[in-house]
From TrEMBL:
Lineage: Bacteria, Bacillati, Bacillota, Clostridia, Christensenellales
Pfam families, sorted: TrmK
Gene Ontology molecular-function annotations: methyltransferase activity
SUPFAM superfamilies: S-adenosyl-L-methionine-dependent methyltransferases
Any one of the GO BP annotations: methylation
Range of residues in the leader sequence: none
Organism: Candidatus Borkfalkia ceftriaxoniphila
Record flagged with keyword Methyltransferase: yes
Protein's recorded name: SAM-dependent methyltransferase
Keywords associated with the record: Methyltransferase, Transferase
InterPro entries: SAM-dependent_MTases_sf, TrmK
């Protein structure tokens, strides 16, 4: 089976645990990856959509028959056992991820891949004292953010720029992050050539200046 680069990047951050949960699992590939490699003793797959969950149930039928997989149709963490020590939530908006965590519980380890509003996820994790072990952008046709967080008791405050762009992106900028900056800068410059005025022009100009500042700062590291 050939996985997308996005899924392969998620896999590269999955680590050994006792009970793994994939919330919003859809296809179920992540649980399959964990079980195939003996990275977890048990996996819980969940999705709010019964139709999506069905795909994972079909894929993981042999593991379920062996008692190694539980599948639950539910909203967020509603029916996820609290002893799941690694929880993956990928492919949803940042606000939705925060709502799921607020309405549920804070697992010991989280792997998150928000599609947008990543800043809100960072703010929430920090407000709960979770340390972001990894926080970076990668590309697979479009740009994605990945956050790996743990309850370590060692969370340190983020600066304004870190909240906006992600700590690893600023300290160890990858080619993908630099490409994202370039793309965003070009997009904003092009937009400013169109007849946009008033507050919108001001906001885009400010945002462009900020991106150019980050672009200059991160280039020091390469
Ligand atoms: C874009 S897919 C991502 C699938 C997979 N996690 C991945 O990253 O490839 C999003 C999945 O999340 C499910 N979903 C959305 N909101 C959810 C929620 N509140 N609770 C559980 N599942 C949810 C959707 O039904 C869908 O199957």
């Amino acid at each position: 089976m050939k996985y997308t680069k996005r899924l392969s990047t998620l896999f590269s951050e999955l680590e050994k645990c006792e009970k793994f949960a994939d919330v919003g699992c859809d296809h179920g590939y992540c649980a399959e990856f964990m079980l195939e490699r003996d990275l977890c003793a048990h996996a819980v797959v969940s999705d709010v959509s019964a139709e999506s969950l069905k795909k994972a149930q079909v894929l993981l039928a042999n593991y379920a028959a062996a008692g190694k997989v539980t599948s639950v149709c539910c909203d967020g963490l509603e029916k996820i056992p609290r002893d799941c020590d690694l929880v993956l939530i990928a492919g949803m908006g940042g606000e939705e991820i925060v709502t799921i965590l607020k309405n549920g519980f804070l697992p010991r380890k989280l792997l998150l891949q928000p599609m947008k509003n990543t800043r809100k996820v960072r703010e929430y994790l920090l407000s709960q004292g979770m340390e972001m072990i990894a926080d970076y952008t990668f590309a697979d046709g479009k740009f994605y953010d990945l956050i790996k967080a743990e309850q370590t008791g060692r969370a340190s405050a983020y600066s304004e720029k870190e909240l906006e762009f992600g700590r690893d992106n600023l300290l160890r900028p990858s080619a993908d992050f630099l490409e994202k900056l370039r793309t965003e800068i070009e997009k904003k410059k092009k937009y400013l050539l169109s007849p946009v005025d008033g507050q919108a022009r001001e906001e885009i100009t400010l945002s462009l200046e900020r991106l150019e500042e980050i672009n200059r700062e991160t280039r020091k590291y390469i």
